Amino acid sequence: MAKSSFWDDLGNALTRKAKGLSSKAENLYEIQKIRNKLSAQERMTEKLMMDIGKMIYTRYEHGEAVDGEVGAICEEISQHMLEADHFRDAIAASKGEKFCPACHKAVMREASFCPYCGAACPTAELEEKATDVIEQAEEELKDAADAEVTEAEEVTEAAEETEATATPEATEETEATTTPEVTEAASYNTDSSLEVTDGNKVNIDYVGKIDGVAFDGGSTDGKGTDLVIGSGTYIDNFAEQLVGAHPGDKVEVTVVFPDDYQAADLAGKEAVFDVTVNGIYE
User: Is residue 43 classed as helix, strand or coil in its secondary structure?
Assistant: First the structure.
């Protein structure tokens, strides 16, 4: 009888212990559920606070007045973003890449057409050339003006010494010799007798359309862009369709965007580009 009582007591003790552990486990489970809900609410709060910050900074970027401490923070954010852009550009340059001005994805440095969004990507080379052209033109104009003043003074002195009156023909000749012709400097050849061949570097302008409607990022806006025929920097066989064209020619180029194209609204669609061949580099 005593032995049976011992086992009964042990069984009861174990049962109570098991119930206690079960109750404790249930409590821990409930606590964990509450903690998970707490974490979710904290994450949502942080996200909403970040969203508010982004909204304020977006307004600041668009020129709205943001005063006081908030304005100072926005200025600091802009400075950090600018410095970050410099670091990204340095990394991209070391890898032979640059960033698309529209979608900000990294593309090859020589690419003049973003393979992700289709936007024109002016090269640093073009920007440098544009600066060189402007500086050269300004220098030529200054030299021309100086030469015109100098020669005009010489003509006046000669006229006073000889007391001669210049004839209209002589005047025209003088103007022709004292006003040097200033032509637009260009590094590509616009000779219409030249022909685009594989491997040529050309300068072009284009306007892309889908179903007759121009799409965002599909135009050079008349600024011109360089393209190496056969480089594969443009989608489909865009460049190859320019082979045989001449400077000044207008070529209709038809391409199909890849099905996995990054810009979903362009993926798999046929586009027609009205291309103008500005010139061929020699």
Answer: helix
